[in-house]
Amino acid sequence: MDDWLTFILERYNYWIVIMLMMTGLYIVFARGNLVKKIVGLNIFQTSVFIYYITIGKIVDGTAPIYMGGELEAASHHGGKEAGGAGHGAEAAAHDAAAAGEAVHAKIDNSALDHGQELKDALKHAPAPEEGGSLHELPDAGDKIANAMGDHLGKTPPADASGFDVGSAAGGAHDAAGNAAGGVGDGAADALHGAMDAVVYTNPLPHVLILTAIVVGVATTAVGLALAVRIREAYGTIEEDELEAADEIAEFGHAAGERAQAEAGAGA
Amino acid sequence: MNLIAQLPVLPIIIPIVAAPITLLLPKGRVPHLWACLFSWLTFAACIALFAEVSSTGPISYHLGDWAPPIGIEYYIDLANALVLLLVSGIAAVVFPYAYRSVQLEVDERQTPLFYGALLICMTGLLGVTITGDAFNVFVFLEISSLSGYALIAMGARRDRRALTAAFNYLVMGTIGATFFVIGLGLLYQATGTLNMADLADRLIGQDNRMVEAGFAFILVGMGLKLAMFPMHLWLPNAYTYAPSAVTAFMAATATKVAVYVIIRFIFSVFNFDFAFIGAAFTYVLLPLGLAGMFVASFVALFQEDVKRMLAYSSVAQIGYMLLGLSFATVEGLTATLVHIFNHALMKGALFMAVGCVVLRAGSHSIYAFAGLSKRMPVTTWAFLISGLSLIGVPLTVGFISKWYLLQAAFEAGHWYAGFLIVASSLIALAYVGRVAEVMLLREPAEDGKYAMPKEEAPLSMLIPMWVLVAANIYFGVRTDLTGGIAQRAAETLMSMAGGAP
């Protein structure tokens, strides 16, 4: 029962998306007012934007802006404050290829509470790999580092795989930063603030959605412009009145009137 | 950096640079000549590209020299080289044709806007065809659709219903495009890439619910865009009330490009290892293709408006394309590709003939066609020949399409589909025959609403129209040209998808 509830709650972003999507579609189909239809269309499109943005989000991740200098400073800072953990993180930040080992070192050195959790994370790491979700990571060391980072970053498990793929695309340096961030989150509060800055959210979905937003705005503009022209030509933007007006233009009377006339003739 | 190395990007760059400049030109003749010039340049680039691809094989072009999958790739093989050639070729004949027709049907102040939008629409369609990046397909699709909505609405000068038709198309088209984006999002979540070739690699073995849902969204989204029966409701009104030149261009290209996108996704991105692809063929494309062939043809039979009749016929013809696709054989795919090409030729010519009648009679009602052979014999014969091609009479391209399709149906063991193809062609005979009877045997109206002078359409319209009619006959006799290329393209696509399902 609990599992079932967490399954639903962890995916709350999808529920929001689905609800918005259905609301938007319903408005498009059920409303006769053309402007309301456009608004419904907008809500529908927005739900898709939210879907894209949430699949790119990593918990505690930041905007994907490369900050080489700050990263180094953060590592040093963390190193002073958190001893072994800091060393591990520093190594990870400096040497991407050795990221995996850096985190190993961290586990060995760390006398902090979450050592056991990190080991667990290491055990877990191969599991998503089998699913194929991590296959694009450059090498095994990074895979583990990244999986650990995410695990400790408390990303919902099912989504973690999806997020990883994107974040890993940023390269080994990214992965190292990720691991460092994870360590900071899980291990030491002092490290937390400094390290957070280098967990990157997957930028690609955001960029795609920027494009889609431009398309959406253009669609809205064209749609509203058409509504204005329809108002000029027909004097109304209600769909049923438009249909009646077309009917009258074509047959000389509206469908309803014709039915009435026929009924009258029958009687 | 030589021009040949940059050839693949030219069909996009040329019109998209020319289009905004069109808006700055003074109204009248200048924007038309400008747009014509660039549509021909684009056509020339597409011919060069086609020659290159057919002699040396597929070309992969990296935009900005960013290697895929990070950068955007243009990937051109025979299948899309053929569609590129088709779209730019139709544009190259429609642009010269448009001048007189647009003069009558579109407000003069809007001419720069009109030609600008038409160029952008062409760019979008070419972009959808040429790109090897899945998200790029969406962007170009919306570029072409948005300009398409505006173009259709420009028919409002003659009939205000163009506005509501454009609005409905906008709502349906946007829902379709958004569905397509949802599908891409699911695929991206499953693979982490958007490059088509890369997607195909990473989808291998991922036969799960997410990929399945992604495919369903893409199929439905594109189904709306290509007016797959029963999602065709936007099409008849949009084609009926749009300006004649726009109808001729869009009927010949827009839906074809959407069919191409479905082909590209089914064969190059997904493949036959996915069980749901086979299911989509058997339970979606085959029955809907057949239903579309019949229902739409039957509805076409009862239309008073020739343009609307041809629009319904387009829905039916899309049914043929989906039917060929659903056989999932090299023969079926060849038939679909051939029909994409041939249908564009015949529908382009037919809608152009209707445009000529509209120019002289001011209407596209069937009553305006009464006695047309006595008033406009050249136009009448253009309509008749392309009408025969639509039915599938030998020596025209329509026959070649039906021949390939029948062959494919029998080889795939769907003999009943073969009979249904013939039966639906008979309905086409009935609705084309109805117009032919009115044109040839009725007396022209002497006075009243549909009276018209005994005067042919101007040469600027007749020549482009007869170019297409001649193409109808030429490619109907030289079958090795389209058939051979389509077969090679189909074999390539089929090998990408990994043989029979």
UniProtKB/TrEMBL annotation, chain A:
UniProt membrane topology term: Multi-pass membrane protein
Record key words, sorted: Cell membrane, Membrane, Transmembrane, Transmembrane helix
GO CC annotations, alphabetized: plasma membrane
Transmembrane segments: 12-29, 41-59, 207-228
Location in or out of the cell: Cell membrane
Record flagged with keyword Flavoprotein: no
InterPro entries assigned: CPA3_antiporter_subunitC, NUOK/Mnh_C1-like
Region described as Disordered: spans on this chain: 145-166
UniProt signal peptide: none
Family: Belongs to the CPA3 antiporters (TC 2.A.63) subunit C family.
Designated name of the protein: Na+/H+ antiporter subunit C
Source species of the chain: Hyphococcus luteus
Automatic annotation (TrEMBL), chain B:
GO molecular function, one term: NADH dehydrogenase (ubiquinone) activity
UniProt-listed Pfam families: Proton_antipo_M (PF00361)
Family: Belongs to the CPA3 antiporters (TC 2.A.63) subunit D family.
Record has Cell membrane as a keyword: yes
GO terms, biological process: ATP synthesis coupled electron transport
Keyword tags: Cell membrane, Membrane, Transmembrane, Transmembrane helix
Major localisation: membrane
InterPro entries in alphabetical order: CPA3_Na-H_Antiporter_D, NADH_UbQ_OxRdtase, ND/Mrp_TM
Membrane topology: Multi-pass membrane protein
Cellular-component GO terms for this entry: plasma membrane
Stated name of the protein: Cation:proton antiporter
The NADH:quinone oxidoreductase/Mrp antiporter transmembrane domain, residue ranges: 133-427
Record localization: Cell membrane; Membrane
The organism of origin for this protein: Hyphococcus luteus
